[in-house]
Write a structure and sequence with these properties.
about 70% helix, mainly alpha, about 150 residues, 434 Repressor (Amino-terminal Domain)
Length: about 150
């Protein structure tokens, strides 16, 4: 008996895993990495297999670097278990580091631009760079020169 819904779910999960994988990127590479016959994967995707073999699922999980429990859950139509928080954070760490560096660079650029605008404005004021800020008290040197 065909299991088309399971096959469609399984194919979608495998294709997403392939897109995320660092070592295998398409079904042909997955077949090579697992040593499975091409028809085996094709039969899984089309639901021609009632229940996949344990070794087949283990090989696919290993090649995709995904939990075998996730493959079985997808095949059986169960919800996936969320990964432990530490794994999520470990996966996000490189992206978060890159984001922090980008935000620091943007903050530095904004600070430099603010400083540039401040200095331009100060230069335009009467008296140029030597003029006291408008709210400050005159210094003794400024009183003597008046």
């Amino acid at each position: 008996m065909a299991n088309r819904e399971a096959g469609k779910r399984f194919e979608e999960y495998v294709r997403i895993a392939l897109a995320k994988s660092k070592s295998v990127h398409n079904p042909a590479e997955l077949i090579r990495a697992t040593g499975l016959h091409p028809n085996t994967l094709y039969d899984l995707f089309n639901g021609a297999t009632e229940t996949p073999g344990s070794r087949t699922m283990a090989r696919i999980a290993t090649a995709l670097d995904v939990p075998i429990a996730d493959l079985w859950a997808v095949w059986e139509g169960r919800a996936l278990e969320p990964p432990p928080l530490i794994e999520v954070l470990r996966d996000l760490a490189p992206d978060l580091h890159e984001l922090v560096l980008l935000l620091r660079a943007q903050a530095d650029e904004a600070l430099v631009e603010s400083l540039r605008l401040f200095l331009e404005e100060r230069h335009r004021q009467p008296g140029g760079d030597d003029a006291a800020p408008p709210d400050s008290e005159p210094t003794e040197d400024q009183d003597a020169s008046s």
